[in-house]
Amino acid sequence: MAMNAQGRPTRAEVTQAAAAQRAPTTFTGNRALQIEESLIFEKDAFDKTGVDLPEPKGTSRLGAHARDGAIGLPGLSEPETMRHFVRLSQKNYAIDMGPFPLGSCTMKHNPRLNEKMARLPGFADIHPLQPQSTVQGALALIHELAEWLIALTGMPAVAMSPKAGAHGELCGMMAIKAALEARGEAQTRKRVLAPESAHGTNPATAAQCGFRVDSIPADRSGRVDLAALKEKLGPDVAAIMVTNPNTCGLFERDVMAIAEAVHEAGGYFYCDGANFNAIAGKVRPGDLGVDAMHINLHKTFSTPHGGGGPGSGPVVLSEALAPFAPVPYVVKENGGYHLVETRRAAEAEGEGHAGGRLTAFHGQMGMFVRALSYMLSHGLDGIRQAAEDAVLNANYVLARLKTEMTPAFEGYCMHEALFDDRFMKGTGVETIDFAKAMIDEGYHPMTTYFPLVVRGAMLIEPTESESRQELDLFCDALLSIARRAKAGDPALKSAPHHAPRRRLDETAAARAPILRWTAPDRE
């Protein structure tokens, strides 16, 4: 399937018919309970303050550093300040408001139990520079979480310190590079194979590690073309980077054959584990021939994802790569726990060619607590059911929507359903118009224009969190938009109509963001 090179304008094409359908403006700019809110700097109260403070007595200790001009901040009262930030918060879509159907992101419900555990003083208030004797509980938790990850993946070792998925990729590829150096082949094996549908971080990570990336085409089913892969294998191949399930929401049926072919050629198999939530408890990547795989704790094990929530990307490693895991790591010994924090200490522990330090400290403690809380509350059977329900929900969405929309590939999907824009051909309506219309229906748009191998892609991941009733309402809304598109409804070209802001020029905003407020000229 050809790569999607479609250009897409982000400004709305407002027709007379669409303009006529807009609601009349109000005096305040408010739209019922959706309150219009200006920037806090535009409150125009720089000569006021919300608190009364006495004049300082005596000599200031600030010396030459004392402020000699206005502070430049608005002086709002407490009610004004609270209302401002509450109004802003009401403009955010959140997983606690409704489904978040972003494909390739796994925006699942975050159980409040996990949040409660992460806020326990023994976890929330510790500091990474505390003596290890005072944080034995935290070290025990990291050790137990590592054991869960090893058991779920069938891999002999795990590096816990990577802070996100891309950071985990870097860790895995650095381990592969170190293993090649130990074999004396670092200068000859400089090529990394990556499917066309790979996450963008895959080729970027390989390039960051000094490898040359060679793309592998997909076959008609949306999976890695095994014949094309074998043609590209040679003595200069260092590794292959495959996402499984892949970014088209499909399981790579030839994954074991891929691993066998790459290993026979002397390379390593890196698996992008971003979609591990579709197979957790069902399939162990170690049994498929994987050498390294990062796991997004913030996807598979229900920790915050997006909106500033930190991620965590532990990396499981095969027996061949385990000696090159980075420090630090936790060791259980004599009834207690301690961190091996340097390469020399790791070699003293008998770890051979231990990797160096990848990050300043030991990982994302809050994410570790949430992930282990999720695992313990679900158990292995619950984790398996979560994966099964995620796949079931995605296939339910696929089955319901394919009556009006066009699936990108035939057959069942895994945890996400992928559609292309063929059903809108000749209507003048594009994927971006469809996505903006979803906002009017009260839904965050699905992932659009990704993966790039599908023209006008619409990637939907319902996760296991959604009930059938919620999915039915969601599907009915999308089916109604699809019918409107086929009928040539001009209002779709200027959607959304009911949001606090109309369609924005997102490209210009990304390329030329205004990051500093400037007071208007009052003359």
TrEMBL record:
Keyword Oxidoreductase: yes
Keyword terms, alphabetized: Oxidoreductase, Pyridoxal phosphate
InterPro entries: Aminotrans_V_dom, GDC-P_C, GDC_P, PyrdxlP-dep_Trfase, PyrdxlP-dep_Trfase_major, PyrdxlP-dep_Trfase_small
Domain Glycine dehydrogenase C-terminal: 386-485
Keyword field contains Oxidoreductase: yes
Domain Aminotransferase class V: 189-306
Cellular-component GO terms for this entry: cytosol; glycine cleavage complex
GO BP annotations listed: glycine decarboxylation via glycine cleavage system
Region annotation Disordered: where it falls in the sequence: 1-23
Catalytic activity: N(6)-[(R)-lipoyl]-L-lysyl-[glycine-cleavage complex H protein] + glycine + H(+) = N(6)-[(R)-S(8)-aminomethyldihydrolipoyl]-L-lysyl-[glycine-cleavage complex H protein] + CO2
Residue ranges, compositional bias (Low complexity): 12-23
EC identifiers of the protein: 1.4.4.2
Superkingdom field: Bacteria
Single GO term (MF): glycine dehydrogenase (decarboxylating) activity
Root EC class: oxidoreductase
NCBIfam families per UniProt: PRK04366.1 (NF003346)
Function per UniProt: The glycine cleavage system catalyzes the degradation of glycine. The P protein binds the alpha-amino group of glycine through its pyridoxal phosphate cofactor; CO(2) is released and the remaining methylamine moiety is then transferred to the lipoamide cofactor of the H protein.
Matching PANTHER family: GLYCINE DEHYDROGENASE (DECARBOXYLATING), MITOCHONDRIAL, GLYCINE DEHYDROGENASE, DECARBOXYLATING
Name under which the protein is recorded: glycine dehydrogenase (aminomethyl-transferring)
Organism: Amphiplicatus metriothermophilus
